[in-house]
Every structure is written in structure tokens, then in C-alpha cells.
Write the C-alpha cells for this entry.
Amino acid sequence: MAVTLDRRHRGASRWVVLALVTLGALVMLVPFAFMLLNAFKSPGDYSSAGPLSWPSEFYLKGLTTYWNEVNFPLKLWNSAVIAGSVAVLGVVVSLLNAYALGIGRVRGRLWIVGLFLLANMLPQEALIYPLYYVAKEVGLYNTRLVVIIIFTVIQSAFGTYLLASVMSTFPRSLLEAAALDGAGKWTVLWRVVFPNLRPTLAVLLVFFFIWTWNEFLIPLVMLIDNSTQTIPVALASLQGDRLMDAPTTNAGALISLVPAVLFFLIFQRTLSRGITAGAEK
């Protein structure tokens, strides 16, 4: 009887948790519903009926206006190049740093890992002026390369901290067996460590891409030319000091959201496998 009651209690708790999670998901979808609703609304509808009304016509001019005014294909290319480069380079740098700290047993390893953790806590506002000054001095200002370098360092700080913690628990028996077989440190990294960390590295790759794709402040300061700007900066350019075309802004936000959502959906299975593998380990 006690076992049956316990099972019923756990079953009821699961339904309550599921209901709360579903409610939270619906609440999070509300802003996206408003964006979708106003993306196909004319400025006249928006001004007269407000943002909560149903559009009187299927208005597509906001989409075409945003596409043409900001040269969206070029902005999409810039964002893809920057985010993709940062994701790949950030994972490589994180792996090399963490290998030295987590397995190489560098002296003062805990202090170095602590510095990487501290670097993750620094706000970008505190970094923007020195980064701007250095970029101007070395001649990289207003280039995609400077943004790639900056975000590779920023993202790899988090990646190094995470991977160093994972590698510190790496089975020593595998490393010793590889050493007995005559494998050097480079061989151990790519033949032993890398295959075991591949799911975790895949998760980092997805996170680095999405985080960099959504970055705004540093690209806003570093990229002042239309030919180098990213999608978030282009979206912000639609807003003036006193006036804002809300339907066009919502249409631009909708178009800008599609690539990131597609990327996430394509790599969703990779992300799930990586998180599951990490939980099993």
C-alpha cells in the first residue's frame, strides 16, 4: 500500500512539474508571438489599433523594406563568418589551453583557472575602450578580423574553464596506457583526449556560435561601416532617436531570428547528445 501511494505521489509531482514547465515555455513564447503579429502589420494598423490588435491586411512591405535597406544578405554573411570563425577557433583554443591546465598539470593551475573564471565575469563595458584603442593602434578597426579575435578570446575563457575542469577528472589509466605505447603529448591529445571530449566540444561549438551571433555592443563599436556590420547592429540601425517604424523593426527581428533558429534546429541532436554524454560521465 505504501509503495502504491508513493508511486501515485511521484506521478502527481511529475504532472505538476510538467504543467509548470509548459506554462513557463508558453510565457517565454509570448514576445515571439507579438513579434510575429506585428511583423505583418502595416504602420497605419499599428498606429491606430496598437501592438495587440490583429492586422487588417497581410502586410509584407516591412519585410522587403528591412531586407533592402540594411542589405540583409551581406549582414547575414558577416554574422555567419564572424560567429562561425569564433566558434571553431574558440573551441580549438579552449581545448589546447585546457589540455595544458587539466592534464599537463601546469604549476599554479588552480590560480590560472581562477583567472579564466574571473575573466568571464568582466562586463564588456569595462573592456570596450581598451579594445577600441588597441584596434585603432594596430589598424584592425572596422574589420571582421578584430571582432573574431576579441570574441575568440572571450569565448575561449569560458571554454578553458569548463574543459579544464572536465580534463582534471580524465582517467589517468588511459593516459598512462598511451604513454606506455610511446604516444607523445600531441598524440595523446588528438588520439585519446579529443575523441572522449568530442560531445562536450560539440556543445561548446553550438554555444559559441549562438552567443557570438547575438553579440551587439562590441560589433556596434568596432564595425562602423555597412559592409562589415552584423545582423544585430543592422537591426538597431532601424531605430532613430525619436521615431521608430515598429512593424519594420518587428519584421527585421523576425528575419534575423530565422538563421539562428535554423542553426539550433540543425545541431539540436548534437547538443542533446553532448549534454547526455556529459551527464553519463
Observations:
- The chain has a mean pLDDT of 84.
